[in-house]
Amino acid sequence: MTAILKHASHCRWKIPFRAFYTCTYPTSSHRNKETSLATPFQRVSCHKQTDFHAHSLWTRSLSGIKLRTIRKRLSSLSAAAIVNSAPSSMKPYLRLMRLDKPIGTWLLFLPCTWSIGLAADPGHLPDMSMLALFGTGALLMRGAGCTINDMWDKDFDRKVVRTATRPIASGEISRFKALQFLGGQLSLALCVLLCLNYYSIFLGAASLMLVVTYPILKRITYWPQLMLGLTFNWGALLGWSAVMGSCDWSICLPLYFSGVMWTLIYDTIYAHQDKEDDIRVGIKSTALRFGEQTKPWLSGFSVAMVAGLILAGLNAQQTLPYYAAVSAVGLHLTRQISSLDINKSEDCWKKFASNRNLGLILFLGIVISNLMKKQEDRPIEN
């Protein structure tokens, strides 16, 4: 071995020590000889092979570092990271309005996007300023709804493991301070509402009674999710009226109905996380009402939702991309319900959160369908 290394060190075509072991030759009988007396061509080939291998490893390492960096930056921009980096005096209020859990804001905002998208002029994108306005309103009204809910459910939340750490239940925020915070949120939401036309202002103000009533119904009926659906999908009416100045009920009502069915699906799944605690503290829900028959009920709601979306699309004269998106929604619901395990909280949360993607798929279909309208009308205009 020493002789071979000395020979390699004095050789005109020097090779790195790491390349020494990567050279391969036809027969094992001449391996030692050919290793020490390899031709320049063989040594150069071995060197290139080693460099290529090292370059591949280096490239993969850099790619891994870049991916980790990107993931770290994205995680630092998440809602939970923003709340955690906020001043300590603000954190309880941000958690009270569920800013660290934006899925609820998405589910409130998405029916607004559907309606605004359907109301856009043929061949045009939805009004971006209107989408931004409704996004701000959804953030504020979802926060106000969570504040009202936590004020009503303070005593119940203390008895449930998942909700015991909420700011009001844990004593971080008093009811009086929560009431002041609620007033601030509603005041800002009113400023957003006043940016709309008079028809929409009155229509939006009418939804406040639904927001206040929902927490009470959990103590009275097994169908509080129905009231939540009526509340969360009010934007399906409001978005159209904000763009058009009034509601076209042939489009808005089927869209609103579909949204209500959608809420019954995802919030029933959500309620299965807490069903044992709900029984203990006396809270009612559709999860307790349906029990082991949850999947047939959810399947029925899914059929009703898809039917409502088809009717709304026909009345709005939507094109093929819209119906493709509705088909994707139907497939998403089918997979979601068929694979649901109502006895596993983690699976229920995963299925619940996946509904944001469902809403975005439908919105994308509406936008593309609306852009296609202009292309279809061009031959007629010419």
Describe this structure in words.
The protein has a single domain (91-372), classed as Tetracycline Repressor, domain 2 (Orthogonal Bundle), CATH 1.10.357.140. The chain contains 22 helices and no strands. The protein has helices spanning 2-10, 17-20, 31-36, 40-76, 79-85, 91-96, 103-119, 128-152, 154-157, 167-170, 175-193, 198-205, 208-217, 224-232, 235-244, 249-271, 275-281, 286-290, 294-315, 320-338, 345-353, 355-381. Residues 4-48 and 376-382 have low confidence and may be disordered.
The whole-angstrom Rg is 30 Å
**Sheet with most strands:** none
Mean pLDDT: 82
The number of strands is 0
Low-confidence region ranges: 4-48, 376-382
Give the N-terminus to C-terminus distance in angstroms. Answer: 86 Å
Shape descriptor = globular
CATH homologous superfamily heading: UbiA prenyltransferase
CATH topology: Tetracycline Repressor, domain 2
Going by helix content, strand content and strand pairing, the class is mainly alpha
**Beta strand %:** under 5%
Protein name: 4-hydroxybenzoate polyprenyltransferase, mitochondrial
Pfam families: UbiA (PF01040)
Subcellular location: Membrane; Mitochondrion inner membrane
Enzyme class: transferase
